[in-house]
Each structure stands twice: as structure tokens, then as C-alpha cells.
Amino acid sequence: MQQVKLCFSKVKIDCIKFIKSQETSTEKFKGKEKMIKSFLIPICFWIAKKAKSRRPYFIGLAGGQGTGKTTISSIIKIILIKYFKLKVFKISVDDFYKTRKDRSLLSKRVHPMLLIRGVPGTHDINLMLNFLKKMKSKKFKSLKVPSFNKAIDDRSNKKNWQSIEERPDVIILEGWCVGAKPASAKSLKKSINSMEEIKDPRLVWRKYVNQQLKSKYKKLYSQINCLIYLKANNFSLLQKWRQKQEYKLRLTNKKRSKNKIMNKKDVFNFMQTYQRITENMFKTMPKFASIVMHLNSNHQIKSTIYKNI
């Protein structure tokens, strides 16, 4: 307990500052200090201990749309750097989306729904595997990491890519489908929502996505040393939280004419593409994730369960 208090005194200012940067005039984070002290600092002690034996230590952080993956992973990064003096690099699986042009070609070759970013098959996994290989190399040299601009639904210009100058001690990969397992062939036969029923009656899209989880994504996720899962109560909550995310994105990009920010109906349609894998993760992730963080309906962490310690 004394260690947690000491850690909190060292990281409080930076953590609170980051959280406030994510707030809007109408949306404020409640219970900031409790979240940091009761949940995130203990997780960081756990990570720091594990990271001593394996460098870089590769963490996957998963959770449905709007669960707060970016906020939580960013705070964990701040604590690991500030208090534990570790070199940490955080990246989102979203930054490895295929370009809009590549997704357009994929949609013509396989299925029109693959134009929509998000599901397995719409990321450049080869680019990500190459990135990890270079990050883990003992002969590490500086490298550039891509970024994706959701406002224009395309990869950012190379001049805006992030540069890494030092080999990290900890790598955090966050994303909604990080660590996701493929579903059974039998379960694919029944449509899970109206979108699948109308747009994928022959199961082409869902079979392709599932096959991606069985192959390239499995190879990527097998490299994860620790998997943290943010578990919401249900899918409808995620839809609500995702709408709030889009609202914040609209506020920060309202002056840009080329933005592709979604309205309420767009969010509902967009999230139907995520529903099958998200609901499968509700069932499977608590069984094999290293740490499960249960979220309440107010978007706060209510409990944390540690496994495989």
C-alpha cells in the first residue's frame, strides 16, 4: 500500500493532466484518482515485475468500442515511464489499417463490406509483424510507425508518422480485436444482426474475417506476453460509448472539410461489423486474458481480476 501511495504522488499530476485532455465541456471523467490508485498503479507494478525477465515485454490491451482503451493504455504508459523508469512505446492496431485504396481493392476482390475499416482483414498485418520484428531486434535502429486518421478514413501522410529512436522495454498494442479468437464454423451460419443477414447472406464476409483470425492475426497475437481485457456489460453500452467518441472526434475536426466522422445512424451500422467478434470476446476473453478489468455502466472500472500470475 505504501508503494502505491508513493507511486501515486509521483505520477498524479501527469496522469490527471492527460485525463483532462480527453474530456470535453460536457463529458467529464469521474473517479480519476480512484481509477489510478486502485486499479492502474497495481497493474503497473505487475507489469514492471514481469518486464524484468523479458525485454521488450509485449502487452496486448483489448476491449470493445469506446471502453477507454486509449485512455487506460496511455495512463499505464505514463506510470511505467514516470515511476518505473521504463522505456515504453504504445501503438494502436488502428494505426495499421490498410489504406482506403487497399481496402477498396479488397472489397472488389472478396466482399464489398471489407471497404469498412475495423474487422480482421482490414489491417496490414505484414506491416505490423515487420514492425514488431524490428522493435525486438537487438540491433535496433530508429524506425517510423504509421498512423491512421479516422477523420478522413485513411492512413496519415508519412511526414506525420511517429519516430522511435530507442528500443523499448515495454510495447503496448491496444485495439478492440487484439487477442480475439476465431469462432466455430457452425456459429457463422446464423446471422447475428440485420447487416449480416442483408449484406452477407452467403457468409463470404464473415468466413473471410474468421479465416484472418485463424491465420495472420493468430501469428501476431501469439507474440503477446500479457493480455489485458476491458470488459463491458453488453454490446448496447459499447454503441452508446462509441457515439460519444465520435462526438469528440467531431469537435476536434469540425473545421476540416474532408472528414468522414459518423452520425448516430452511421455508428450503429458501423458497429454491426464489430458485433460478432465483440460478443465472442465477451465469452472467451475472460478465460485466457492475463488481467480482466470489469467496467460498470458509468464507464468506470469496478473490479480487476488477475490470471496466469
How would you describe what is shown here?
This protein has 309 residues and is α/β, with parallel strands linked by helices. It has a single domain (55-67, 82-306), classed as P-loop containing nucleotide triphosphate hydrolases (Rossmann fold, 3-Layer(aba) Sandwich), CATH 3.40.50. Helices cover 46% and strands 15% of the residues. It contains ten helices and ten strands. The strands form three sheets. The chain has a six-stranded mixed sheet with strand order 2-7-1-8-9-10, with helices on both faces. A two-stranded antiparallel sheet has the order 3-6. Strands 4-5 form a two-stranded antiparallel sheet. A hairpin with a 4-residue loop joins strand 4 (148-149) and strand 5. Helix 1 packs across helix 2 and helix 1 (2-21) crosses helix 3. It is globular. The mean pLDDT is 90.
Ordered list of secondary-structure elements with their pairings:
Blueprint: H1 2-21, H2 32-51, E1 57-63, H3 69-82, E2 88-92, H4 100-109, H5 125-136, E3 143-145, E4 148-149, E5 154-155, E6 162-164, E7 170-175, H6 194-199, H7 204-214, H8 216-221, E8 226-231, H9 235-252, H10 264-288, E9 291-295, E10 301-306
Parallel strand pairs: 1-7, 1-8, 2-7, 8-9
Antiparallel strand pairs: 3-6, 4-5, 9-10
Helix pairs in contact: 1-2, 1-3, 2-3, 9-10
